[in-house]
Task: structure prediction
Amino acid sequence: MTRPIRVTWQIHQLGTETAFEVLARAKRLEAQGRSVLHLEIGEPDFATPPHIVAAGVRALQEGATKYAPAAGLPDLRDAIAQSMRDRGVPAQAENVVVTSGAKPMLYYALSALIEPGDEVLIPDPGFPIYESVVRWAFGRPVGYSVDTAREGAVDVDEIARRISQKTRVLVLNSPHNPTGAVLDRGTLASLAELVDQNDLAVISDEIYSQLLFDEQHCSIASLPGLFDRTVVIDGFSKAYAMAGWRLGYGVLPISMVRHVERFIINTTSCAPPFVQWAGLAALTGPQARVQEMREEYRVRRDLLVHRLNELEGVSCAAPRGAFYAFPKISGALERKALTAGQFTETLLDEFGLACLPGSAFGAGGADHIRLSFATSRPTLERAVDVLSEAVRADSEATRAWGERPRGKATV
Ligand code: PLP
Result:
């Protein structure tokens, strides 16, 4: 009998993104003939705008099928630098590195910035890949809270208290997944002071920078002295509905660029050139569609938040950016004696509603669920009808489920 192949301790440090796991589970149910409402994945339901698709197709037809420079096509690096300058970030093309989605840039940046045992401040709740990458890079994640109900969303004093001799990096994410919180200029200025006093680097994940509903996006890298300490991460997945194209980028202090370039040479070689030409069309072409999609997200946000707040035991602050609602459902969970993980399992299994437990985003997300409103209004309406049935104190299905023997929640 062959023994199972041995894998490393280190590979076990990689976490996951529950959204992809729940999506896979929902697809299995659909394959069995069940119908599922998809509010789990953070992926625009819109098609990529046609002029972007056309640019990608044209590039393919014109032979953009060879390797490209590791750091990206010069034209695209130029256009990204220009778009950064439009946000007040003093970037040149030489500061830009193009990657296959925003996610790889997190690996490149953290691998370049931390030594084993170094501490990295990450939002909790927060995008789960931060913790995963920090552990993968032999670092120690230290969570700080994010709360939409709080003025400024984060407590700068709390973050200051979490800084130790070993802290190297502060990870920011604004607009924030999963809460939709936005870091305003005042808060960013206080954080910038902290960063400077403690000689930290910043990784600023700005993937939702074009999805703010009521205000302009502000990047910490636009504040005096911060550009040289900050890695800005952004991409095309969300604003341009290009998640499957896998195109993102980092804007880095010049001294880091060659290291990240080498990392790309060691891994993907380059982002596919025809995809980069599509990205160039996205950045330099008409922006009306981005605005239309944002307006539609706003309508969906208002609809969803309004209806969620009508449910007993549920309260939901309006997200200021991104496309997620993050309602607190502690009242409903207490009544049913369920964790959010158990509740979202029953929502999928019994009610055909796929969404995520807040705990998938860290301990700070307990008692919440995340609902993506990157889906149609009728789907959102049906989802809240289902939730309304599921949170009702006398709901048969969740009561019966709650009485089942408890194992560890799998989502
Ligand atoms: N950062 C955050 C906060 C996200 O929510 C996501 C995707 O969900 C990403 C990064 C990854 O984006 P990409 O699809 O460009 O890799």
